[in-house]
Amino acid sequence: MVKTTSYPTPQDAEAAFYEALETANLERMMEVWADDEEIVCVHPGGERLSGYDRVRDSWAQIFGAGQLLKVQLSDQVYVQGMMLSVHSLHENFAIEGEGARQPVVTTNIYMRTAGGWRMIAHHASLASQPARLPPSSDPPKILH
Q1: What Å distances lie between residue 39 and 84, 111, 124, CA to CA?
Q2: What's this model's pTM, rounded to 2 decimal places?
Q3: Where are the domains of the chain?
């Protein structure tokens, strides 16, 4: 596939990734990904997918469900070198029109190519929910 968009920074590629995700735009989504059989994608609760066609098919299936997602990003940490950029972040997903959010921990990896920065890996896992303590009428015990 010939890429028509060049991303001058990995942050530009990441912004395009999340815009494509929120608009369920498969062509824009795959514009962000590298044209390489070594790309890897793991969706929350899913298996490890490698290769351009398998990654594309997974996004087509997600977008084909017809539900638009809203994503709120937080706790972004970037580690960047000349050729690779690793992004660790929290995604909070909500289906458009619904209030409940699902927390996801994500790692995105971008590689500098002749055509700009491209995604080579996306690994998203469901985040553990904050622990909820049962209500208690007893005051907390101080151990120290």
Answers
A1: 14, 11, 14
A2: 0.84
A3: 10-126
